[in-house]
Amino acid sequence: MKIAVLGATGRTGQVIVEQALAAGHHVAALVRRPEGLPVRGENLEVVVGDARDPAIIEKLAAENDAVICSLGIPASGTSRAEIDDSASVDVCLVSTRLLFDALPRHGKRRIVLMSTHGAGGSNDGSPYVTWLRDLVKNRVLDKDHTEEFIAASDAPVDWTVIRNPSIYEGDIGRPHAVYTRIELDRSSRVTYQDLAAFALSEVVAPRHVGQFLTITEPLEDTSLLAAAEIAPEVAA
Q1: Which of 16, 58, 133, 183 lies at a C-alpha separation of 20 to 30 Å from 40?
Q2: Are 118 and 129 in contact (CB under 8 A)?
Q3: pLDDT, tens digit, 9 for 90 and up, residues 165-187
């Protein structure tokens, strides 16, 4: 399978690329800085450019079977003092609009988009979401606008949005579940390996088409699961 990965130099994107290559797929990795992608492989094509460039998106839509968007500006730190969130961000929204236009014109349908829990419909006002949105307001606003666009779109694409909690380095195969509705706390987390594996599985064998999902390991406060809704399987 030919898979385009946008945001391939981010940690999640790198792991998606690694896993896709290991599974025998051809990967077109979109990067702004080639030196930022340490992954190498015979089936890896590094495409240098901006995800907001219509010509780049047209090329990726034409030449690949599916797309995984792992875009966003990474934040390093756990407090406002450590993170500069002053810049307005639009890369997720602009690239998604371009992809939803380009994919159908090239007879392609499948796209998986990485978001964050606390964006869009998961902005539930909970303590976790309030903390997150205070920390990275502009980054989450880009995800808000992207999710709003996706929910309103009638483009003939098979999309899935994956909202992550905190992501950490760890082995693949940690216990986790996928929800269409859940309140998280600050114990919520998932490994890069499990997040990437789930995103890749949704491209290869879609089970949650047209859904906004949250993926997380078990929470410390199990009472939060009482109102949670496990994601039903909806194939393409």
Answers
A1: 58
A2: yes
A3: 999 999 999 999 999 999 999 99
